Input
Amino acid sequence: MSDNKSVKARLFVVMGVAGSGKSSIGEALAEKLGGLYLDGDTYHPQANVEKMSRGEPLTDEDRWPWLERFAKEMQQREGIIIGGCSALKRAYRDHITAAAGERTTFVHLSGSRELIRNRMGARTGHFMPVTLLDSQFATLELPALDEDAVTIDIDAPVDTIVANAIAALQSSGHERE
Output
């Protein structure tokens, strides 16, 4: 079943610190909206992956080309696109929207440091070490009221988080016209 008539935007970015559930929620949201999920991590250059694997936080200079590539990839796809990307700073979100060349709505996954640290510690096969979580929280700029964004609490099962995201998008004026 698709709920794609319930949202106005075509491009969405599920954002948040590492371990907040961007991939799980993004994939489930894409399925619910009848869209395609793109994992922003796959668009990192190898140098970024190596840097993070060593426990080194990325700089803005590391991020700009990655954000550009990710946004262009989203824009070039047809239909509803859900991308997973940390988008920690407003400047990054603005850059993604500008590079995509069209409205992009952000779904901020918000949870406590303890909850996210526990989730990161339990996952396997990801290049982002738990040691970088503090730098992620230090970099995070919460979406402002004037941004095209909703914030969703992640202390719930995936289906609940996705339902809450869709409800928030609808109640905040993101319905189709």
Summary: The radius of gyration is 15 Å. The first helix runs from residue 22 to 33.
